């Protein structure tokens, strides 16, 4: 098993724990983003931190996106005493958004050249979904952040 395979396994295990804590039956792209943001010292974590996105800030952005989505259908979490999510009892499976993010990551470089920043780039390349909405609500320009990741990858290759 390569070093990147071990790294990816760790990212997925953390994302699985995030999904379980959310009560989700699937690991989605936003769970992968939370995992990367929590991975102290990785390039992906450093790029996210450079725009103010540590794990807590990503969680806050995702919570804000959830509240915004509810408000779009006329539900205000402040008006109701909504219970928190129940921890998922079963091991979450890989969801479509996470699979697509991983596929985009893997297509961006040869396997031996893959790094954490490639995973982040695969997540940031999504045009629709929870992650783009959460980043927009947090005031993060997703295209600029993706460009920053690309520049970081280029500088690491030199």
UniProtKB/TrEMBL annotation:
Keyword Hydrolase in the entry? The reply is yes
- What top-level branch of life does the organism fall under? Bacteria
Q: Which GO terms describe its molecular function?
A: serine-type D-Ala-D-Ala carboxypeptidase activity
Q: What does the record give as the organism's lineage?
A: Bacteria, Bacillati, Actinomycetota, Actinomycetes, Kitasatosporales
Top EC class per UniProt? hydrolase
Matching entries from InterPro entries are given as: Clp_N_dom_sf, Clp_R_N
Asked if Protease is a keyword of the record, the answer is yes
Show the SUPFAM superfamilies listed in the entry. Double Clp-N motif
Keyword field? Carboxypeptidase, Hydrolase, Protease, Repeat
> Can you say what this protein is called?
D-alanyl-D-alanine carboxypeptidase
Pfam entry (one): Clp_N
The Clp R domain covers 1-69
* E.C. numbers: 3.4.16.4
């Amino acid at each position: 098993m390569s070093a990147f395979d071990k790294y990816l396994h760790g990212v997925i295990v953390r994302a699985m724990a995030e999904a379980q804590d959310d009560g989700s039956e699937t690991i989605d792209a936003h769970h992968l983003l939370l995992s990367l943001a929590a991975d102290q010292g990785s390039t992906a974590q450093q790029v996210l931190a450079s725009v103010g996105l540590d794990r807590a800030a990503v969680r806050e952005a995702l919570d804000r996106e959830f509240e915004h989505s509810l408000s779009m259908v006329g539900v205000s979490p402040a008006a109701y005493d909504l219970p928190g999510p129940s921890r998922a009892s079963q091991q979450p499976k890989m969801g479509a958004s996470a699979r697509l993010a991983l596929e985009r990551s893997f297509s961006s470089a040869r396997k031996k050249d893959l790094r954490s920043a490639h995973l982040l780039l695969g997540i940031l390349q999504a045009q629709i979904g929870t992650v783009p909405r959460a980043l927009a609500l947090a005031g993060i320009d997703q295209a600029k952040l993706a460009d920053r990741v690309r520049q970081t990858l280029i500088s690491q290759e030199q």
